[in-house]
Design goal:
binds flavin mononucleotide, globular, 330 residues, NADH Oxidase, single chain, alpha+beta
Length: 330
C-alpha cells in the first residue's frame, strides 16, 4: 500500500503548484488559479485575467492553462508519482479545467526530471536567433513530443510558406497596433522598467532596438513608444530560426488545453537542448487570418501557436505572482 504522510502530500502539492506558476501565458497574464483539497489540485481558468478583446473565446487563456497543467504533471512525475488527471471534469463548472492528484508511486522518470529542471529556466525570446543550426533530429524530437500529447508540430520548410507566415504576422501586427481597444488591452499587460508588479511582459524581456530577421516576423509592441527594452540584441542574431506551427484537429476547449500541454512539452524539450522559442500569435487572434492559415498552410487543422525556434544566448529572469496569490477556496 502507498502510505503518505500529510507533510509529504503538502510538500508535493507545493512543489507542483510552484512549477505551474512558471508556465508561459499570453502577455504573462497567468490566467489561472488553484484550489487544493487533500491531495487533489483543481486548476481553474481565471477569467478576470482573460484578454477580453484579443482573446474573447479564451483560446489563448486555455492554452496558457494547459501549459500550467503540463508543469504540474511533470513535477509529480519527477517526484515519483503517476499523475491522475481529469480534464474538464465537470460540465457544470466550465472554469474548472482539470483536477490532478499524485497517484501511485512510480520509479522516478529521468525524462520528466530533465524537463522539470527546465521549467523555471525557460524564457520566451523576442528577437532573431544566432546562425547556429538547429539539428534536424532535435526538430523531429520536438515533433514527437507534440504528437505524444495529441497535437501536431509542423516545421515550415518551404521558403514561400515562411514568407507568407511572416507577411501575415506583419499585417496582423499592423492592424492590431491601429486598433485602439486592442492597444489599450496590450498596454495593460506591459510591465514598465522597475515595476514591482508580478505579471505582464517585463521590459527586460525584449530588445530595445531589435534587428529585423529575414523574412521579418513582427513582434508585439509592448512599449507603445517608450524607450523600453534590453540592450542584448544589438550586434548579432538575425536568423529567423526554424518556423513551426502547432495545430490540433479540433478547436474545442479541450483541444486548447491539449495544445497548451503539447506546447509546454515542446518548449521544455527545446530548452533542455539549448533552444529558445519566439512566438508570433497576432494573426491567430483574427478570425479570417486564422481561417486562411488553417486552410492554406495547416491541412485543415486549427493553428494554435506560431513559433520560431533557434539558439540564443540571453537568459532573462522571469516574473511571476507567488502561489499564494493564485490559491482559492475549493
Ligand atoms: C497562448 C500564448 C500566446 C503568446 N503569444 C505571444 C506573442 O504573440 N508574442 C510574444 O512575444 N510572446 C507571446 N507569448 C509568450 C508570453 O508573452 C510569455 O510566455 C510570458 O510573457 C511569460 O514569459 P516567459 O515565457 O519568458 O516565462 C505567448 C504565450 C502564450 C502561452
Amino acid at each position: 500500500m502507498n502510505v503518505r504522510t500529510a507533510e509529504e502530500i503538502t510538500s508535493v502539492i507545493r512543489t507542483a503548484l510552484q512549477a505551474a506558476t512558471w508556465a508561459p501565458s499570453v502577455h504573462n497574464t497567468q490566467p489561472w488559479s488553484f484550489g487544493v483539497d487533500g491531495d487533489e489540485i483543481a486548476l481553474r481558468a481565471d477569467s478576470d485575467r482573460k484578454l477580453r478583446i484579443g482573446d474573447a473565446a479564451g483560446r489563448e487563456m486555455l492554452i496558457s492553462c494547459g501549459a500550467a497543467l503540463m508543469n504540474v504533471r511533470l513535477a509529480l512525475r519527477a517526484l515519483g508519482y503517476e499523475p491522475q488527471v481529469r480534464v474538464l471534469p465537470d460540465p457544470d463548472r466550465p472554469a474548472l479545467l482539470a483536477t490532478i492528484r499524485p497517484g501511485a508511486a512510480v520509479p522516478a522518470d529521468e525524462s520528466a526530471r530533465l524537463l522539470y529542471a527546465e521549467i523555471e529556466r525557460r524564457r520566451t525570446h523576442r528577437a532573431g536567433f544566432t546562425e547556429l543550426p538547429v539539428p534536424e533530429r532535435l526538430v523531429e524530437t520536438l515533433v514527437a513530443e507534440a504528437e505524444g500529447e495529441g497535437a501536431r508540430l509542423t516545421p515550415v520548410r518551404s521558403e514561400a510558406a515562411i514568407r507568407v507566415l511572416a507577411a501575415i504576422t506583419c499585417a496582423a501586427q499592423d492592424v492590431q497596433s491601429q486598433d485602439r481597444a486592442l492597444s489599450l488591452e496590450l498596454i495593460r499587460w506591459a510591465r514598465p522598467p522597475g515595476s514591482a508588479r508580478a505579471d505582464g511582459v517585463p521590459a527586460e524581456g525584449y530588445p530595445r532596438t531589435p534587428r529585423r530577421t529575414r523574412p521579418h516576423f513582427a513582434q508585439r509592441d509592448y512599449t507603445h513608444g517608450h524607450p523600453w527594452g534590453n540592450e542584448s540584441d544589438q550586434f548579432f542574431s538575425v536568423s529567423t530560426g526554424v518556423v513551426a506551427v502547432l495545430t490540433t484537429k479540433g478547436d474545442s476547449r479541450e483541444d486548447w488545453i491539449t495544445a497548451g500541454q503539447a506546447l509546454q512539452r515542446v518548449l521544455l524539450r527545446a530548452c533542455a537542448h539549448g533552444l529558445s522559442a519566439a512566438f508570433h500569435t497576432q494573426a491567430l487572434e483574427m478570425f479570417h487570418l486564422r481561417e486562411f492559415l488553417r486552410q492554406e498552410l495547416c491541412s485543415q487543422e486549427y493553428p494554435q501557436m506560431i513559433m520560431r525556434l533557434g539558439v540564443t544566448f540571453d537568459e532573462g529572469k522571469g516574473v511571476r505572482r507567488p502561489v499564494t496569490d493564485m490559491l482559492e477556496e475549493r
